[in-house]
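Recap from last week: sequence in, structure out.
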Amino acid sequence: MIRKLFFIFMTATLILFVFAGVLTALDVQPVAMVKANLENVRSYAASVRPAGVSYAVDGGELYEGRPGEWRKIDLPTGVIAGVVAIDGSRPGVVYVGAANELALYRMHSKAGGKHEWLRVPLPSEGVGGVTSLALDKGNRLIYVGADTGEIFRLRDVGSSVIAAGRTQLDKPIVQLAVDSVNAGLLFARTPSRLYRGEETGLQWREVENLGSAPTALVVVNRYPATVYVGTLDRGLLMSHDGVRWSMINDGLGFTPGVRLAVDAIAVDPARLDVLYVATSYLFGHTEVHQTPSSVSMSVDGGGIWQPLAMVVEAPVAELLPVTGEAGAVYALTMASRRPAALGSAPIIVEPTPALTAATTSASAWPAVFAWIVAGLVGLALLYGLGANLFTEMERGAASFRVQRPSVTHR
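Predicted structure tokens:
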């Protein structure tokens, strides 16, 4: 009897698991959170390793993944993401600057796809949002730029992020860039000026010897560390100390009398000698016209540039490199923030919603069918055991009636 009761219990348990499995197989909600293409990119942080996870701010939301597969990450309630940065020295740590408040959010990815958030309010009396982030990984310093013209210096001590300085500039901060090898290369760009940070960002001084207004900025952490600054009409400049600058326009089409503007610069995080630059030509004096030119690539740190793709529709606003793949880059333009594939970057085709739903449903039904069959088997087993138990009980009762002694009344 005990053995039969054990089998009945196990069969009932099987049926419960079957029911849960059917519900799981039919639940396709996570698939809806993944999309192939980004549509309105405002910030991009490329993975430091080939085929690693990159991050992007798309329409105020945060996404992680790679070209062709982007998964949305839920932000804290009420937060609109403005800019994102990866801490390559600490796996799973990502910083997000809010566009709708002066606050920094640190995200730490946990096992099972969970995320832990830490909110860091920025000490300011102004009202605005975060526009740029730069990480000095060697000194665990975070520089935060805001549309209020403020630069906040923070220190990540692990258990928390603490304020460690604040500077007020005259215009909104457009870009920040810093090295992580203690080379002292720390820069902030406003719409018309470039500033250099000294004493790890405690003091800021304007850079006055560029000869043109700055238009793009990037710091590369190779040895020696190098800062690249794009200009409005002198092309691209390079420096190892932020004081002496060299023009590196070989192959970019810069000649005397030509006004060559640099619209964007990007570096491959895994191959630091691979650089991309987008250029335009300026014409006119009283009324200036900008004509997009091309996107070029260098594999020797800017020594020689080679054309990668022509740009005819609108000037490039930002370049998004594919980590570890020289010649693969996406472009955002002044007319569209949807990434456009250039060079060898793959063109991603977004599947139609109807096709995605049909494919998802079709892939789920084999699992559902398997669970249903297993459930029917479990029910049959339970029925058989129950019928067998009932028969045994009937036989026992009949045997008891036969063996019961008769009582004679006198």
